[in-house]
Amino acid sequence: MLDRVKGPHDALAELQVFRETLRTHVAEVTKEIVLRDKMNQKAVETLCARIDLVVRDYSGFLRRLNTLRGAEEAEAQDRDAVVDLRREWGIAHARTNLFQVELNQWSLMKALVAKQVASRKKRVPLYEARPSGLGVAQSSASDDVFDWVHAILNPESQSDDAFQSGCFPDIALPNSRFHEHLHAGYRVVLAQGRTQPMRFLDVGCGGGLKVLSARRYFTRSEGLDYQDSYVDTARSLLERAKADDAKAFQADALTFDGYGDYDVIYFYRPIRDDQKLVEMEQRIVELVRPGTVLIAPYVGFEARFAGLGCGRVAGSVYLAKTSQKDADRWRRKAEQTGVAVVHAEDERVATIWTPLLEASRNSGYDVERFKPLI
Predict the structure, then answer these.
(1) Quick count: other Cβ atoms within 10 Å of Cβ 169?
(2) Considering the domain 133-335, what is its CATH architecture?
(3) Collapsed DSSP state (helix, strand, coil) of residue 28
(4) Any residues with CB less than 8 A from the CB of 372 and at least 6 apart, and which?
(5) Which of 146, 170, 219, 236 is 20 to 30 A removed from 374 (C-alpha atoms)?
(6) Torsion sign over Cα 323, 122, 302, 251
């Protein structure tokens, strides 16, 4: 290959050949892994071996290219000639080395692919059947701390107007339980393919701590509350957290008409009056799109979901306007996703691995350690 390289332009041409070859292999691997349980293991292993070969050959190419450049500099007559050579090779040198930086990420990507191959026939339940005693004790201690923080962040008492309207005060679901429900709902959304954007709504958000927490899972996180002082507290919290992708607003859950804008809606019995609570549930289900994920961790909704035209996926996660048969089907699909919750990232320059990484994340898989890819 190096015998075809007579100068920097030839080097750039060879670089493009390597890049296009690798791009093709990455696209083929990506096409396989999105099939999840139907992926062809042998095809994936063959493609990974081909990528191994590209990475190895490119490393050898880069060494020989550097040797060629060094030899040309050694033959230069004076310092000015060396400077001219380095200037001439500058762009090619930078681009070929930058591509090597991309290739250095292959070990992370290969492990990511291997993880999905190994898991393709496995199902991970949306909820753990038997949490360990150690885990329960740790979660309980963490929940206590969260409750203290919750009380500090929202010292507002319930207003007379909110009480007279039948609302509950800002009573938080234990944080560990909340994250179990959010994680389950997140995996259902991944299974549905609703990856960008994913919009979350907390009905009765109080001081906004749950809205802030939901940002860890969803692209856009919002909360509504009847009481103005709660909304003010939530807005202050989100502003201090610099949460530009989250907001809190005042609205009456019984008359709000924007439920159809969301992919995931969470409500933890925000209304004290049983009849009004049922009216709220009916309004939510009436306005949302079919398949909208509803997270409702209380006994009343568990008793009423079928009559409301919802299917239960698992635990406190339901699908609106969905039969139980279809909800069971979505549960099985969600159990085939990975369990990684993708970290939000600042926008980065795309690399050769971007399609593979995005497809893996959309299936609930991520690299073991978050690292910049370039």
Answers:
(1) 17
(2) 3-Layer(aba) Sandwich (3.40)
(3) helix
(4) 348
(5) 219
(6) negative
Both ends of the chain: CA-CA distance in Å? Answer: 27
Length of the chain in terms of residues written: 374
Residue-wise pLDDT for 12-30, tens only, equals: 888 899 999 999 999 999 9
Measure the CA–CA gap between 182 and 355, rounded to whole angstroms. Answer: 26
Q: List C-alpha distances in Å: 353 to 23, 26, 121.
A: 8, 7, 25
Those residues with Cβ within 8 angstroms of residue 199's Cβ, 6 or more apart along the chain or in another chain: 218, 219, 220, 221, 222, 261, 262, 263, 264
Task: Identify the residue whose tokens are 């239960």.
Answer: 312
Domain regions of the chain by residue span: 2-122+351-361, 133-335
Structure tokens at 167: 């609302």
Q: Are 185 and 324 contacting, i.e. CB atoms less than 8 angstroms apart?
A: no
With H, G, I as helix, E, B as strand and everything else as coil, classify residue 172: coil
Q: Which of 220, 223, 204, 210 is nearest to 150 (CA)?
A: 210
pLDDT digits (tens, 9 = 90+) for 152-177: 877 878 788 877 777 777 777 888 89
Which tokens hold the place of 240?
């201090």
CB 332 within 8 A of CB 224: no
How far is it, in rounded angstroms, from Cα 96 to Cα 105?
Answer: 15
**Rounded Cα distance, 234 and 273, in Å:** 24
Residue given tokens 């090779």 in the structure block? 89
Can you tell me which residue has the tokens 């009849």? 275
Task: Tell me the whole-structure pTM to 2 decimals.
Answer: 0.85
CA distances (Å), origin 63, targets 6, 66, 74, 76, 135: 15, 5, 16, 20, 51
Lowest-confidence pick of 161-175, 261-275, 297-311, 330-344:
161-175
Per the CB < 8 A criterion, the answer to whether 212 and 246 are in contact is yes
Q: Got the DSSP string for 296-343? A: --SHHHHHHTTTTT-EEEETTEEETT--HHHHHHHHHHHHTS----PP
3-state secondary structure 273-292: CHHHHHHHHHHHHHHCCCCC
